Amino acid sequence: MESNYQDRIPNNVGLGANRTLQRALEHWQPEFLNWWHGLGPSDFNASSVYLRTAISVDTKGWATFDYVKMPDYRWGIFLAQEEDDRRVGFGDHFGQPVWQQVPGEHRSTLRRLIVTQGDTEPASVEQQRLLGHTAPSLYDLRNLFQVNVEEGRHLWAMVYLLHAYFGRDGREEAEELLERHSGDTDKPRILSTFNEPISDWLSFYMFTYFTDRDGKFQLKSLAESSFDPLSRTCKFMLTEEAHHMFVGDTGIGRVIKRTIEVMKELGTDDPVALRKAGVIDLPTIQKYLNFWFSSSLDLFGGDSSSNAASYFANGLKGRPDEIKYEDHIEAESSFTLELPDGKGGVREERIPLRNAVNEVVREAYVHDCEKGLARWNRHLEEAGYPQRMTLPSTRFRRSVGSWANIPTNPEGKPVAMEEFHARQDEWLPTPNDRAYVHSVMKGVFERGKMAGWIAPPERGINTQPINFEYVKFH
Ligand code: BYC
After folding, report:
1. pLDDT by residue (tens digit) across 69-128?
2. Can you point out the beta strands (E) in 224-367?
3. Which residue from 87, 341, 359, 436 lies 20 to 30 Å from 398 (Cα-Cα)?
4. How far apart are CA 47 and CA 67, in angstroms?
């Protein structure tokens, strides 16, 4: 399908040939822009930002760089190319042709999955809306806005599916995606992590590393869907998602690098001395990591989930990279869960694998998260320090699943509630830690300059130098 970049809504879905759908989306567009102006990045909307825009899905068009004012960003609808004769890849309908329309019996479940996915996208923009003021450099400011406009585009992607395939219900859901707000007491966002404030850049990097990576795994699971338009939409979203995780990965690495530099200069790892020198001490970084990793683990849902089993059986939502598994039906397979035994210990239980799909995906996610830690720890190793960043156990500080509200230490050992309360200041950011991190967040807007708590990146964006004018203020 040809890309129509010149249309009011750039697309490769032949929108011009479907007047009803085009009108419905053109009606939603001003509501989206209103939302962007009210709850998107505060200020900076008149600045020219060096942004990447997707104008088509081929290798040339998907990443076009230029100066753009954010409200003029071309939020388009792009689906990955259709695969010839694509077949259902897992579950009870394995091998049958995929669906180009929504089967009636799966309508409400698919709508729910699309709405849940769609809800996270504007939520993250809302969470990050004030960060521009405290950006550690123009390079980082540009990256923040890149992430924000692309999350906006991902919202468009889900709204397209709702409008095109779910009739009036879908249009109503699309409106509601702009009515729920992150952290709102009456109408919060659907999933827990998307109601947490992101008011400092350390949280932003943790979020883009850990929470965007949940996005990667969820999108990969949805890319396996038998509902082909959903699969194709998610495949294209994944190409943009990679940069968001890169921002988190390199962001955390740069914070650690800068802390190590000052540890060397001062000859100490004493947090008080390091804070005096304006950098973020390693224990504080670890506590932020513990917070965002554990929160992101909840986004995979319960470890034993009948929802997940029926998504899998019906071919609605699969496992990332399904092709890698030997058995795509898993009718008889089982999975061993480690559960709290109610007496302060752990017991094992075998459950049908289909019910454990959330856990299977969560395990793959944890494995993927470890790669970043290996990179960050290399900085420490090369500098000759024995400290290492670690991922806490998947049992630690959970709010969803069998370990929800069971107090454990970061190693996953169940502990008494009193011990958890007594020691949580060692494990999770305290109000004092947060206040300190906030105190070093001051906007640095001079070309090539960096805030004192973060090292410069290794290279710029799209082969531009680090001191490039990534954002032009007017
Ligand atoms: N918070 O059977 P269960 C991204 C709900 S991130 C609150 O255990 P299921 C992005 C659950 O909805 C990716 N509620 O779980 C990243 C269900 O409610 P209903 C977003 C939660 O259904 C950064 C009930 O508890 N995409 O893209 O197997 C920036 C029982 O659930 C939570 C998706 O999530 C929670 N943490 O799996 C921007 C994909 N966890 O339905 C973007 C679509 C569970 O009974 N969503 N619940 O009312 C799904 O696939 C599934 O809904 C979940 C839950 C994986 C989230």
Report:
1. 999 999 999 999 999 999 999 999 999 999 999 999 999 999 999 999 999 999 999 999
2. 334-340, 346-352
3. 436
4. 9
Q: CA 428, 430, 435: angle at the middle one, nearest 5? A: 130
C-alpha 172/C-alpha 159 separation (Å) is 10
Measuring CA to CA, how many Å separate 25 from each of 35, 199, 206, 362, 430? 15, 32, 34, 35, 45
Query: Does this model's pTM top 0.70?
Result: yes
Ligand 1 atom 5, closest CA: 301
Please answer whether residues 33 and 22 qualify as being in contact, where contact means their C-beta atoms are separated by less than 8 angstroms.
no
Pick from 143, 218, 357 the residue to mutate for probing ligand 1's pocket: most ligand atoms within 8 Å of its CB. Answer: 218
Task: Decide whether any atom of ligand 1 lies within 6 Å of the 317 Cβ.
Answer: yes
Question: 448: Cβ below 6 Å to ligand 1?
Answer: no
Q: Would you say the C-alpha torsion 179, 182, 186, 192 has a positive or negative sign? A: positive
Segment 418-461, tens digit of pLDDT: 999 999 999 999 999 999 999 999 999 999 999 999 999 999 99
Q: Which residues pair with 87 in a beta bridge?
A: 97
How deeply is 10 buried, as exposed, middle or buried, from its count of CB atoms within 10 A (0-12, 13-18, 19+)?
buried
